[in-house]
Amino acid sequence: MFGPLPAPRDESGQVVVEAAIVLPLALLALLGLLQLALVQEARLLLEYAAHRAARAGALWNADPERMARAARPILGAIVCPSRWSALPCPPKDQPLLRAAAGAAALRAVAATGGFPGLEVEEVDPPRLPAGLRELDFDRTDLDADGRAALLLTVRLRYWLELKIPFADAAIWHAWHAVGARRLPLARRIAVEAAAASGHYFVPLETTHTARMQSNRFTPEVAP
Prior knowledge:
- This protein is an alpha+beta fold and about 220 residues long.
- The protein is about 50% helix and about 15% strand.
- It has one domain (about 15-210).
- Strands 1-2-3 form a three-stranded antiparallel sheet, sandwiched between helices.
- The radius of gyration is 26 Å and the shape is elongated.
- About 25% of the residues are buried.
């Protein structure tokens, strides 16, 4: 009544072709997610570093070196490991030494222009009139302008090294197509030169505002 059933088709070749297409894409997506997770970790640490920098600036008359000194140890923990030969890293079983080495590397890089490293700056610092003296921080008779003068806003820019293979180049090129044009020419050339040698860095930036313990005053004027 019924004819013979057709012989089953051999689909092994099709499965191999589909796997060859899907598996590399899935692997690249997994590596990309891992790299983005590391970027998010760096963002969180940068937020805390900005808080520490603003607090140091509030205590030390917005001294830029003290602000940078307060922020570097926070980010030193993610500097290592690095493929950048100028950033030597201790073994991974010594995390405290690695963090200290990372902070020392950021300090050394800051002396050569800040790339790749950490840049700390005050946002819109006010001009100080000659002879301005330090005021008591607990004054309650300040007007709106006086209270605004006590606010310190610090901007941190950290050049994060992308370290996950394949994902580093993909994410860097995506950033470069949009964000690199906003960089100064000299910095853009440095970033592109590093990428050409296989070292991919992208900038992370944040700001933090804190109330200073006193108004700003020129260092040569005694409190």
